[in-house]
Design brief:
The chain is an alpha/beta fold. It has helices at 15-32, 48-59, 78-91; strands at 38-42, 64-69, 95-98. The protein has a domain at 40-99.
């Protein structure tokens, strides 16, 4: 199925969808920085979630980052899957952003 905005038909996000997603992320973080929402950033290559969280915290002082995780690029074992879920539950985020 093609993107209605630009006609992109390949799997994944088209450039219009990616821009919209980034705009939503920034706007939501800006609006919730002073409200105490707890954000968790999950996914991407090693270090990407951490750098994104640091960048957003610098841009939006008061942004509450509950945690970050960049899991390996492979299917997780059942044990790893359970550990990831436990980590997220312990972090008690209000919002989980994943890529």
């Amino acid at each position: 199925m093609a993107c209605r905005s630009c006609g992109w038909a390949a799997p994944g996000l088209c450039s219009a969808q990616a821009r919209l997603r980034a705009d939503l992320l920034r706007a939501f973080c800006e609006q919730t920085a002073a409200q105490g929402y707890r954000h968790f950033f999950y996914g991407g290559e090693r270090g990407v979630a951490e750098r994104l969280a640091e960048s957003l915290k610098a841009r939006f002082p008061g942004l509450n980052v509950a945690g970050t995780c960049s899991p390996p690029f492979r299917p997780l074992s059942p044990k790893e899957d359970e550990e990831m879920l436990d980590m997220i539950v312990r972090a008690a985020p209000d919002v989980i952003w994943w890529d």
